[in-house]
Request: fold
Amino acid sequence: MTLSEIKHLLADRGLRPLKQFGQNFLHDQNMCRWIVDQIQPVSGARLLEIGPGLGAITEGILQTGAPLVAVEKDRGLAAILRERFDHLSNFDLREGDALDLLPELGAKENFPVVCGNLPYNVSTPLIMTMLDWPQPPRRMVFALQKELGQRLSTAPRTKDYSALSVIVQAEYTVEIVKKLPHTVFYPEPEVESAVVILQARAEPLVAAEKRQAFRALVKKGFSQRRKKLSNLIGGTDSRRAEELTVEEWAAVTPESQ
Reply:
């Protein structure tokens, strides 16, 4: 949908972008097609889209024949999505807050690929929720705040390197593949945006049964960044948390403390 079509549709329904929902609708057609290409939908391979909004990315995915489950919180937008796509057999809309729906969805269903134009204020808890699924996604493609993309993808010894960086990179390679201009959204966001791809490692650096203990240890290590690890988690390592690579963190198992 073009920018003028989006504005007309919203006005016709008495709707407006809601800041509390983090609604910034993609309207650049070339950008939408490019994002769909990064998602790599395949006919027969099930996808999950979080926050489809007015269906800018949804439409391109459905055209490939891939079965899509879409989660939308806004009732007005959900009604528009049904009108646009309910006639398609590969479209399945789940209405509700993704933070509430994702734990049960992931427990009962398998989604190898997850995508979405994520609300900036809840991007981190959404991603962490999916990492807790019995079968976490193999590939995630998100438009999100560039600052978060930097935190997810950054290397050690940088200001953005954090517990979140280590926890996510222990299971995924993370890459910022494109910075998004403000002008491709309506309304234009106040922050910079980017498309980020998380691709599951062939083998995670931490075994599933040690995942929670590993995360707790990493969070403790980063809880006071200026302190040495030996003072925070025990052991003899005199470095600070941000000096360890993800691989080195994975080797610091709770059992060794």
